[in-house]
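cron nightly-structures :: item 1 of 1
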Amino acid sequence: MNKGLPSDRFLVEWELESVRAVDAAAGKSITSERWQSYPSLVKWLQSGSFARPVLGQVLGNENEYIIPVPRYLHDMKRDQLDLAKEWRFILRDQFQHALANGYVVTGLLRSEDPVHYYVVEKMTV
């Protein structure tokens, strides 16, 4: 399944009675227009058919970020395994750091880019 790549799985927990979960279960969109203005934790450039990560960012003082993920990872693993590994490791580092610092994944921003974006937001207690 991972074709020579380390695992990239998350343990996901849903608050099933939250407004967002109820809305999603009812088929309502849970995306937000403001997500597009969030800073990205990984910069990327077009590289042939795929995106190439070029720079991982350090978490700053923002309460929200987006983290790009390749749209066509299965094709990338087949055609450019080294590029898929590059993505896997930079994403692992960015997600581990964000999650360890109180951020949670709150959505997926789909785009026409060669990447989609996970939305991470700081949890307030």
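cron nightly-structures :: done
The chain has three helices and five strands.
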